[in-house]
Design a protein that fits this description.
The complex is a heterodimer of chains A (151) and B (132). With 151 residues, chain A is mainly β. In chain A, 15% of the residues lie in helices and 38% in strands. Chain A has a 4-stranded antiparallel beta sheet, with no helix packed on it. In chain A, strands 3-4-6 form a 3-stranded antiparallel beta sheet, with no helix packed on it. With 132 residues, chain B is mainly beta. In chain B, strand 5 and strand 6 form a beta hairpin. Classes of the chains: A mainly beta (151), B mainly beta (132).
């Protein structure tokens, strides 16, 4: 056998990372802006969107600079969290454009949350252009400590 | 070809590539340096710049204008999945023409967007000459 299993894992992980990077580029978040590195977040890498399992909750964070609360469509249905945001490009009247990288974009993402969540316990807030959505897991999905007895 | 004199051009952040390639301990702890997206507009009176800086609070933002360059630098707190509190940096520099009146530059950060107004000196503003 030429490769150890570990090498396959690494190779597939690299390909997977690469695929996610390409997905990110194509999802319309913004051409020409290169976010170079992945943080170690699992799920969606550095695309300005991060979904994290904190144990008791799922926490979704999305970079939405210049977006107002009314422009955000957020819904939770059957354990799936859906986010729809649109930002229109703003070109002030009477100005020449030297550079326009921020552009307008449309974001449409759905996240099916692995463990059952409590739809009554969802909080969402927008601060400094970052949307944070916290969904609490249902009681049966909460992590529980298992004690080990000497046997 | 724009009819206004280009009052601002961008200095490519030459260090950028090096920052990313380097993986020394300090760099890893600090997180990467990212280049924020900007829009730059100009009319007869001023240059207008918008930069996307999500997650940045006004006290974590530095806008520095020196003789011929403008640098926007900001720190954004970041929590890694393993719970480590760290930060990363947004940084971008621009070359600014002497047409800009440095004393009248204003900056405002709202909803993660920086708005910079760079008025031009009175003397260089384009004006229509009335013809009798």
């Amino acid at each position: 056998m030429m490769f150890r299993f570990q090498d396959f894992d690494d190779a597939f992980r690299l390909l997977d990372d690469f695929r996610r990077e390409v997905d990110r580029l194509y999802e319309g978040y913004g051409w020409g802006r290169w976010a170079p590195t992945r943080t170690r977040s699992y799920g969606y890498g550095w695309s300005g969107i991060q979904l994290q399992d904190t144990g008791n909750t799922y926490e979704l964070k999305a970079d939405l600079p210049g977006v107002r609360e009314n422009d955000i469509e957020l819904s939770l249905e059957n354990n799936t969290l859906t986010l729809n945001v649109e930002r229109a490009p703003e070109v002030p009247e009477g100005y020449t454009v030297h550079r326009q990288e921020r552009g307008g974009w449309k974001l449409a993402r759905s996240f099916t949350l692995p463990a059952k969540v409590d739809p009554e316990k969802v909080r969402a807030s927008l601060t400094d252009g970052v949307l944070t959505v916290t969904v609490e897991k249902a009681p049966e999905s909460q992590p529980r400590r298992i004690s080990v007895t000497r046997g | 070809m724009s009819k206004n004199t280009e009052a601002m051009t961008q200095v490519e952040n030459v260090g950028q590539g090096r920052d990313l390639g380097r993986r020394d301990a300090e760099q890893l702890e600090r997180g990467p340096t990212l280049t924020p997206a900007v829009d730059i507009f100009e009319n007869d009176d001023q240059v207008l710049l918008f930069a996307d800086l999500p997650g940045v609070k006004p006290d974590a933002l530095n806008v520095v204008l020196d003789e011929d360059s403008l640098t926007v630098e900001a720190r954004r707190p970041w929590k890694t999945p393993d719970g480590q509190e760290t930060w990363f940096t947004y940084r971008r520099s621009f070359v600014v023409s002497p047409h800009i009146d440095a004393n009248k530059v204003s900056a405002r950060l709202e909803n993660g967007v920086l708005r910079l107004e760079l008025p031009k000196h009175e003397a260089v503003r384009r004006r229509r000459i009335p013809v009798s």
